[in-house]
Amino acid sequence: MAFDAQLAFKEKVAKITLTGSLDASSAPRFKEVIEEAALQSPTKLVLLMDSLEFLASAGLRVLIFAKQKMGATVDIYVVGSQGPVLGTLEMSGFHHSVYIQDTYADA
Amino acid sequence: MMSLCLPATLDSLDEIGKYVVAATSEAGLDTKPAYGLRLAVDEIATNIITHGYEEAGIDGNISISAELTASTLKIVIEDTGIPFDPLSRKLPGEDILNLPLEERDIGGLGIFLVLKGVDDFSYVFTDGKNRNIFVMNLAGHN
């Protein structure tokens, strides 16, 4: 399934809906969307990942980039991630730095 | 399964992924090990394409083949890019994995995920080709 990243803003919260396969071929698109979001200085970054079916290290590197670009005070929420994609996040230690949730109140 | 030969570009990752999914399906692997193998192959293919070819300014191909036996599924990737042994890279330890993202280095995760995802991984350079070999044991995975 082709990758897509859709950005929406509401009250300084950046929400990005990720779908498809996030690997080295699609990571540049995700990085572009992160940069676009960072321009508006969000206070939170919410990643809706229910429909993200594949996550490679190139995608993880964009999450590191997001945290470093937006700053440590901008909390990152990973919402709806499940199965092996969630397993990859946890195996890589990302659950120590992002909030992993099944749902997001305003999602 | 028939082997597949593709241009060594990132656009080929999608076809490589489909090939691995078909192989794991034919082998009857469960979702988690099938995903682990697909991820491992994607990571190594990405390294080959990016470091072995593109950054070296070399054009070439990457080929992938699958061999299913009664007890294992073996995937082999071959390329003629710059020789590189993925196992020569230092893997992130728990101290690195526990760091907050704002302090993390962006490298090293790919090979870590390869070794976590498969039952056996090996590399040889022979006849002018890099050969990356991934093995999944079928017992307990299906």
Layout of secondary structure:
The complex is a heterodimer of chains A (107) and B (142).
Chain A: E1 4-10, E2 13-22, H1 27-38, E3 44-55, H2 57-70, E4 75-79, H3 83-91, E5 99-101
Parallel strand pairs in A: 2-3, 3-4, 4-5
Antiparallel strand pairs in A: 1-2
Helix pairs in contact in A: 1-2
Chain B: E1 4-7, H1 13-27, H2 31-54, E2 61-68, E3 72-79, H3 94-97, H4 109-117, E4 120-126, E5 129-137
Antiparallel strand pairs in B: 1-2, 2-3, 3-5, 4-5
Note the main attributes of this structure.
heterodimer; A: 107 residues; alpha/beta; Transcription Regulator spoIIAA; five-stranded mixed beta sheet; 3 helices; globular; B: 142 residues; alpha+beta; Heat Shock Protein 90; five-stranded antiparallel beta sheet; 4 helices; 5 strands; 37% helix
Description:
The complex is a heterodimer of chains A (107) and B (142). Chain A is an alpha/beta fold. Chain A has one domain: 2-Layer Sandwich (Transcription Regulator spoIIAA). Chain A is built from three helices and five strands; from the N terminus they run E-E-H-E-H-E-H-E. Chain A has helices spanning 27-38, 57-70, 83-91, and strands spanning 4-10, 13-22, 44-55, 75-79, 99-101. A five-stranded mixed β-sheet of chain A has the order 1-2-3-4-5. In chain A, strand 3, helix 2 (57-70) and strand 4 (75-79) form a beta-alpha-beta unit. In chain A, helix 1 runs parallel beside helix 2 (57-70). The radius of gyration of chain A is 12 Å and the shape is globular. Chain B is an alpha+beta fold and 142 residues long. Chain B has one domain: Heat Shock Protein 90 (2-Layer Sandwich). Chain B contains four helices and five strands, in the order βααββααββ. Chain B has helices at 13-27, 31-54, 94-97, 109-117; strands spanning 4-7, 61-68, 72-79, 120-126, 129-137. A five-stranded antiparallel β-sheet of chain B has the order 1-2-3-5-4, with helices on one face. In chain B, strand 4 (120-126) and strand 5 (129-137) form a beta hairpin. In chain B, helix 1 runs antiparallel to helix 2 and helix 2 (31-54) packs antiparallel against helix 4 (109-117). The radius of gyration of chain B is 15 Å and the shape is globular. The mean pLDDT of chain B is 93. The chains are: A alpha/beta (107), B alpha+beta (142). The A-B interface holds A 21, 23-25, 54, 56-58, 60-61, 63-65, 67-68, 71-72, 76, 83-84, 87-88, 91-94, 96-98 and B 10-11, 13-14, 17, 31-32, 35-36, 38-39, 42-43, 46, 49-50, 96-102, 104, 106, 109-110, 112-113, 116.
